[in-house]
TrEMBL record:
Protein name in UniProt: PhoH family protein
PROSITE patterns: UVRD_HELICASE_ATP_BIND
Protein origin, superkingdom: Bacteria
Biological-process GO terms, alphabetical: recombinational repair
GO molecular function: 3'-5' DNA helicase activity; ATP binding; DNA binding; hydrolase activity
Record region (Disordered): 738-766
Pfam families: Viral_helicase1
The keyword tRNA-binding is annotated on this UniProt entry: no
């Protein structure tokens, strides 16, 4: 590595200062445009106002992008063999003469920054990492890639990973950061992978799957902006805490328009939060539930075998079995969803009822107009409406599932065994109760698919709305061409923003409200956790099958989760999906990974743990405590100033350990919730710690974690791989044999209970 001279640093400082100067100019210009537009006030025609709002929205978004890239605007430089030079940063900048000042990291010419090696230098002679604090350049790190030009001293350390190591050893803040300055070659290949088709990224803990998936979203939005901005990108994470953990990464890369969601939130208007037994969740996640939901819908379309009498004031009408069955057959054969097929059913029965009524009225021969009038009279008669509603009720997905899960008889008729229905049986919701679990959400989606919109009227309105939308887009195109903005703004988005009196909605916001939204690309993180029913829901959101799925089969914790990628994907894309692997662990030091690797053997003897990129000299320890109450004291002694610590517990012990820790450490948070990521100490179950990372981890009662679930070994593997620095185990029962050779410590007040010492960080020789 070549050392930067003070002169070099000053030159870089000058260049970076100019870049910030340019950024300021662009911000000012955009701000001025925004002010101009807003100054036009709320006067003028409706058309003028909506145009003004559209421009205001566009400038506001551009401004927020320009503000989002303040930190670390420029982080690299590439010197080429032809003596040309490019600066790499979070966004592209040019001066007024269109001279490129800064290259967006996602542009093809920036690729060598991540991929060039001395063996394949890609025309690059030097890769420079620039370290900045605020707007000040604080350091420079060079990788010299041109072997001929290398001084002997530089040849000794060609891999130049100082920037990476510096990034990895920084204290965790509770929020994931972007890695745009230190993306590694194997990660870059995945980030820039083709948009189309299904890409699976399989990798062990800490290999950067999440962070790579997020950078891929940013890359795809940059490269296929037109296509993806319109349809949007969905990123699906395991739970709301995880989404909070990652939510700042994309804005820091200048992307604000991506929908982050979890399975429990993917059905508009419902939040799946209620906890339920793992058995119930596993059962609801199984593919056969699709048949159960379909049978439950059919069950609501059954007609009675005995005649149905409808008493009106002047006479009684009767629907006999044959009429009922023929209406049912016609409705089912229409192949429409339940709520739309209802129109066919009702039409048929009303015709039969009208004929009967005419006979009762002694008017056998009615002309068409009279017949229609009588039919309309009958349709609005309360007893007729009630009877038809009983026979073929309008159903919302919520009504269908509440009806199903609160009745053992209905569950049995829908094909569930007595045992299954005991597992699922519930009491109806009390007002305001959180009735839905995460596993219910894909079932609601499935039901919505089979039930359809409430009636034809809704469908007609939707068709009308679509036609109007197309007209608006055509108009928007004209406006954009007239104003010369056609190349910076998509007509469809512009048209959406002009929507009458509608508040300004981003693509992500519109997508979040629409169950039938088809995303341009879907990224699923911790994809191994999704159940078969959840996959059905996700696939409905992505008919183009342009997807990136990241996960680790060895970490599957949910009983309904995946055992292999083929099993998950083959029903949807046959064998047509590609797999990339990540093999280097950037999070967990080698000392900890050694312990985790032994647990991985319990998950599957052939599985291979990822290789840690660094070691700390810090050995994991085990401590036997008299009872769980002592965990609080142990935790207090483990706290490092400014660091973040998590206590990972068996789910059944969360309340007790949470109480003990809260008692010993003020400000500690227990369980998932808004405070989890910001608290210096958190107590979490394995499921809630999944995907997260902390400076220090204490795992409580690993034996119980192993025994508590059918995926116990995977859960323990996850727990042991959350730390970036220190790992300890506290147990009140016997220590599982697999952890037998941990260094043992004395009790909380015992002689070995020294406070932590700072780790001695080294790059691991591999
Ligand atoms: N190229 C890189 N430069 C700097 N940091 C990196 C790089 N790659 C990964 N990291 C860091 O390594 C840590 C682990 O990454 P990430 O959480 O994406 O891993 P993961 O594979 O999703 O892990 P898990 O399966 O355990 O959830 C994060 O702190 C991430 O920022």
């Amino acid at each position: 590595m070549s050392k930067s001279s003070a002169g070099e640093l000053a030159r870089e400082q000058e260049y970076v200062a100019d870049l910030y100067g340019r950024l300021d100019v662009l911000r000012e210009r955009t701000r001025a445009r925004l002010d101009d537009v807003l100054a036009q006030g709320a006067s003028g025609t409706h058309q003028n106002r909506s145009e003004r709002d559209s421009f205001a929205g566009m400038y506001a978004q551009r401004l927020s992008r320009l503000w989002a890239v303040e930190a670390g605007l420029c982080f690299g430089r590439l010197d080429h063999a032809d003596d040309s030079r490019l600066y790499i940063g979070r966004i592209g900048l040019s001066d007024d003469e269109q001279q490129r000042l800064l290259i967006d990291w996602r542009a093809p010419v920036a690729q060598p920054f991540y991929r060039a090696t001395p063996a394949a230098p890609m025309g690059v002679t030097r890769r420079r990492h620039l370290y900045t604090r605020g707007r000040t350049v604080t350091g420079i790190d060079d990788d010299l890639l041109d072997l001929d030009r290398l001084a002997d001293a530089d040849r000794a350390s060609l891999n130049g990973e100082a920037a990476l190591l510096a990034a990895l050893t920084e204290k965790r803040t509770g929020r994931m950061r972007d890695i745009v300055a230190t993306i590694q070659a194997e990660q870059d290949r995945i980030i820039r992978g083709d948009l189309s088709g299904v890409l699976v990224v399989q990798g062990g803990p800490g290999t950067g799957k999440t962070v790579v998936a997020l950078h891929r979203a940013a890359y795809l939005l940059y490269t296929y902006r037109e296509r993806l901005e319109r349809r949007g990108v969905l990123i699906l994470g395991p739970n709301p805490t995880f989404l909070r953990y990652i939510e700042q990464v994309l804005p820091s890369l200048g992307e604000t328009d991506v929908l982050l969601s979890s399975v429990g939130d993917l059905y508009p208007g419902v939040t799946g939060r209620r906890t339920e037994t793992p058995e119930a969740a596993a059962l609801k996640g199984a593919a056969r539930m699709a048949d159960v939901v379909a049978a439950a819908v059919r069950e609501r379309q059954r007609v009675p075998r005995t005649p149905v009498e409808i008493r009106l004031d002047r006479f009684t009408l009767t629907l006999d079995r044959r009429t009922l069955e023929s209406a049912q057959t016609k409705a089912v054969r229409s192949r429409r969803p339940h709520n739309q097929a209802r129109a066919v059913f009702v039409r048929h029965l009303l015709t039969a009822l009208t004929r009967q009524a005419a006979r009762h009225l002694g008017r056998g021969m009615l002309d068409e107009a009279d017949f229609a009038e009588l039919r309309e009279d009958l349709r609005t008669e309360e007893p007729v409406r009630l009877a038809l509603n009983r026979l073929w009720p309008y159903l919302t997905p919520q009504q269908l599932l509440i009806g199903l899960f609160t009745s053992a008889e209905r569950m049995s008729r829908a094909g569930l065994s007595a045992r299954d229905s005991r597992t699922l049986l519930r009491v109806p919701p009390a007002p305001g109760e959180d009735w839905w679990s995460v596993a219910d959400v894909p079932l609601l989606d499935e039901a919505a698919e089979l039930l359809g919109d409430i009636d034809e009227g809704v469908l007609r309105a939707a068709r009308r709305a679509e036609q109007e939308r197309e007209e608006r887009i055509a108009y928007a195109r004209e406006v954009l061409e007239l104003t010369g903005l056609a190349d910076v703004m998509d007509a469809e988005r512009f048209a959406e923003r002009q929507q009458a009196d509608e508040v300004y909605l981003t693509t992500a916001e519109r997508a979040a409200r629409d169950r039938t939204w088809a995303f341009g690309h879907v990224i699923v993180d911790e994809a191994q956790e999704l159940s078969e029913m959840a996959w059905r829901m996700v696939m409905r959101r992505c008919p183009s099958r342009s997807m990136t799925l990241v996960g680790d089969i060895a970490q599957t914790g949910s009983a309904a989760g995946a055992a292999s990628w083929g099993h998950v994907l083959d029903p949807y894309v046959g064998g047509r999906w590609r797999e990339e692997r990540l093999t280097v662990n950037y999070r967990t030091p080698a000392e900890l990974m050694g312990v985790a690797a032994r647990v991985l053997e319990l998950v599957g003897p052939d599985l291979k743990a990822p290789e840690s990129v660094r070691e700390t000299g810090e050995r994991p320890w085990a401590l036997r405590a008299g009872d769980l109450g002592q965990v609080g004291t142990v935790v207090r002694e483990e706290i490092v100033e400014g660091g973040r610590l998590v206590v990972i517990v068996p789910a059944s012990e969360l309340p007790e350990v949470g109480k003990a820790v809260a008692g010993a450490v003020p400000g500690a948070a227990a369980g998932p919730g808004p405070a989890t990521l910001d608290a210096p100490v958190a107590v979490l179950s394995v499921a809630d710690a999944k995907g997260l990372e902390f400076d220090s981890v204490i795992v409580v009662n690993p034996g119980r974690i192993l025994a508590e679930s059918s995926r116990g070994p995977s859960d323990l593997y996850v727990a042991l791989t959350r730390a970036t620095g220190r790992l300890g185990v506290v147990h009140t029962g016997p220590l599982p044999a697999v952890l037998g050779d941990l260094e043992t410590r004395g009790g909380p007040d015992g002689p070995d209970a020294d406070g932590p010492s700072p780790p001695a960080e080294t790059r691991r020789s591999r």
